[in-house]
Amino acid sequence: MTTKFTPLKDHDTPIKVLFTGYLCTVGIGYLFALIQILFTHGMADGKFGLSVDDIVYSYYGNRSGTVLEQKLNGSMKDNAPELERFKIMEWVREGADSDDYKSEGIDKIIESRCVMCHNKEASGIPDFTEFESLKALTTEDTGATFASLTRVSHVHMFGISFIFMFVGLIFSFAETTTTQYKCIAIGMPYVFLVADILSWWLTKIHPMFAWLVIFAGMGMGVSFIFMWVTAILEMWLFKPVFINGWGSRYLELRDSTDASLADRLWSYAKALGRQIKPAAAFVVDLWLTRGWPVVKGWFKKIS
Questions:
Q1: pLDDT, tens digit, for every residue of 145-165?
Q2: Rounded distance, CA 53 to CA 73, Å?
Q3: So where does this one cross the membrane (predicted)?
Q4: Domain end residue (candidates: 138, 161, 195)
Q5: Under a CB-based contact definition with an 8 Å cutoff, are residues 168 and 22 in contact?
Q6: Which of 138, 170, 194 is the last residue of a domain?
């Protein structure tokens, strides 16, 4: 296959070391991100491991209890003995009175178990040196706030998109993948990133969208692993894998004149796209001519 770029295996060694160093660093970072999810969202239901309930509790909330109780039974469960956690929850259920806060020794427990992290210097988490901040968590658990979702959304949008930009740039020099599949692999993370962040907001509104959070996260992971593994193998193990190893069979199938299942699916997708385009144009035109004027009329009545 004729290429108009320098394949990964033919780059100078310093360039390959640079690419490999970056890929290994972000790969380790991605791994730690997954571990962090397991110890935060994955503990929302009090059990280790990510589940749909964890996603629901994290974004929609557990409306059957307070925020503080859910945290003490979930991600913060290991940070205090059971007796102390029960004492705090008992105080919450009795109304979280400020006088009882000191008389029952709740302040001492909070100071010894929580303030080391929940203090004025910490950003993004409540400051438990102020009673009002703790009191605010004794209300019904409604999950993530819209303010926190806004903050986390824009951080993820900017940060993760840069990661995938550089991973995709390195992967674009791969020669074992056809151009159309490169485009799919490079574009997939951005689609799933937007879907992932959108699913947080949708789950905040209704818990049924929790499945979308998991699906979008898996999609990002699969595309990341595919690009990462392909780039590493082509840079350092091209001959043993793609010439003398199992990868040679893949190259034979890639260069075969027979249309593969993936090729047929791709052609079906393009045909479907051509069918959807006029329908989408019709919907947009319908919205602009009929829908939007009605909405504008509602806003005028409200104002």
A1: 888 999 999 999 999 999 999
A2: 14
A3: 21-39, 155-174, 181-202, 208-233
A4: 138
A5: no
A6: 138
**Of residues 234, 222, 241, the one with CA closest to residue 173:** 234
Q: Is residue 139 within 8 Å of residue 67, measured between CB atoms?
A: yes
Q: Which amino acid is at 10?
A: D
Q: Which residues of 161-200 are buried (b: 16+ CB within 10 A; e: fewer)?
A: eebbeebbebbbbbbbbbeebbebbbebbbebbebbbebb
* Residues 188 and 241 placed together within one structural domain of the fold: yes
Clarify whether residues 188 and 254 are in a common domain. yes
List pLDDT tens digits, range 248-278: 777 777 777 665 656 666 676 777 777 777 8
Domain span holding position 114: 62-138
Residue 171 sits in the same domain as residue 214: yes
In a domain, 2, yes or no: no
Number of residues in the chain: 303
